[in-house]
Amino acid sequence: MKLDTLLHQELRLAIVSFLANDIEWASFNALIEVTESTKGNLSVQLKKLEAADYIKIKKRFKNNYPLTECRLTETGKEALQNYIQELRKMLNI
Known about the structure:
Blueprint: H1 10-19, E1 26-27, H2 28-35, H3 39-51, E2 55-62, E3 65-72, H4 74-91
Antiparallel strand pairs: 1-3, 2-3
């Protein structure tokens, strides 16, 4: 039994778990609010999740302001499901 080390970090797990709740696209600001993270830390963790293809990041402008949005990919959904299964095995539940 081995947990996905990328998801086993608290903030990354919080991001992926939030996005797994049928959220098509979540804004950077919504993720800051939900995770209670700093902008810098959230940005670093999003880049790590994007590099693993767990999330997709879209950057654009809305009313002349930058807007960063994220969504969970199929790879990310599968990784979260596998993580939960492994955790259940470890806990015998």
